[in-house]
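To the wet lab folks,

You asked to see what we're planning to order before we commit. Fair enough. Below is the target structure as tokens, and below that is the sequence we designed to fit it. If anything looks off to you, flag it before the synthesis order goes out.
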């Protein structure tokens, strides 16, 4: 009996060797009995433009892609159709190659974060005071799904204050929103604090006051690793009873949203987060 060829998917970026996405999608495929192959492909912009590389993968029969750093804005520009959340984010992390040759672009990062905070950390956003630190690509992607959950208020603080202000003004929402640099963050406890800066990648802390921490705050760092991040450690040092979480669940959550878009079935993210966590900690 002839085997049915698996449908092909990949994550593209540069660098890409470190990507956990092939492992995550393999675990999703096993869990949901989907016949897919998923690989990590580096696009070297000195060899091929992003558009040329995507055309090549389309010709090779790939059904869809994840797009990561530094190509999320290129992907936004290349998609023929965009989901509403990709349009608002102005960045795309998922392509669906349609049968008629069109490319649908989506952004699942924000949905991944909301899923992780609401389901894993068990902290619904409704009526909560939320502090978002950072105003780069990742924060741009999470704001619309987060605002849709009707938090009580949102303050965005960023090293470059103007960037936070411009981002805050882009959203037409009934949720009270404000934005500032480090110097004008309201000095009161927030219920949910999300670090979306890349400071943790360098082992650095954004220079914010511990007064934003409450005894029961959820302190979330979008970065993840084998150990708690410097930001999570800082929060625990000042508020030992606060809840901290890193961004591994967001990574698995956004992957689950992409998988559902491609395959029409939503995997359970809990066992996959646990498996990837175990692997990271054993390395
Ligand atoms: N878990 C996940 O699935 C997931 C998904 C996406 C991203 N992430 C993580 O999210 C973080 C941000 O990624 P991104 O794509 O948004 O990056 P980005 O577009 O380059 O934005 C970087 C942000 O960090 C700020 N920043 C950089 N260095 C800083 C420092 N030393 N101190 C304070 N602020 C600093 C920047 O401020 P300025 O505007 O002033 O430059 C900007 O707001 C990274 O840690 C990334 O790994 C995680």
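Sequence we intend to order:
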């Amino acid at each position: 009996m002839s085997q049915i060829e698996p449908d092909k998917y990949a994550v593209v970026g540069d660098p890409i060797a470190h990507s956990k996405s092939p492992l995550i999608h393999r675990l999703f495929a096993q869990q949901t009995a989907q016949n897919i192959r998923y690989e990590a492909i580096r696009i070297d912009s000195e060899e091929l433009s992003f558009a040329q590389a995507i055309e090549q993968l389309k010709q090779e029969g790939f059904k869809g892609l994840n797009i990561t750093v530094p190509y999320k804005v290129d992907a936004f520009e290349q998609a023929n159709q965009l989901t509403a959340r990709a349009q608002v984010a102005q960045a795309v992390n998922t392509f669906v190659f349609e049968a008629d040759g069109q490319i649908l672009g989506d952004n699942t990062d924000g949905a991944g974060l909301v899923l992780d905070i609401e389901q894993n950390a068990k902290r619904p956003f409704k009526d909560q005071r939320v502090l978002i630190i950072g105003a780069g690509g990742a924060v741009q992607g999470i704001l619309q799904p987060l605002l849709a959950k009707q938090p009580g208020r949102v303050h965005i603080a960023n090293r470059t204050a103007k960037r936070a202000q411009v981002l805050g003004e882009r959203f037409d929402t009934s949720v009270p929103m404000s934005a500032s640099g480090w110097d004008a963050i309201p000095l009161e406890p927030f219920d949910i604090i999300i670090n979306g800066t890349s400071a943790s990648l360098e082992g650095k802390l954004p220079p914010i006051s511990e007064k934003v921490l409450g005894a029961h705050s959820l302190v979330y760092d979008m970065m993840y690793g084998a150990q708690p991040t410097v930001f999570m450690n800082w929060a625990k040092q000042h508020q030992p009873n606060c809840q901290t979480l890193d961004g591994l669940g967001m990574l698995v959550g956004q992957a689950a949203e992409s998988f559902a878009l491609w395959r029409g079935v939503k995997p359970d993210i809990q066992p996959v987060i646990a498996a990837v966590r175990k692997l990271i900690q054993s390395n």
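Structural context that might help your review: Residues 66 and 272 are 18 Å apart (CA to CA). The chain has a mean pLDDT of 96.

Thanks,
Computational group
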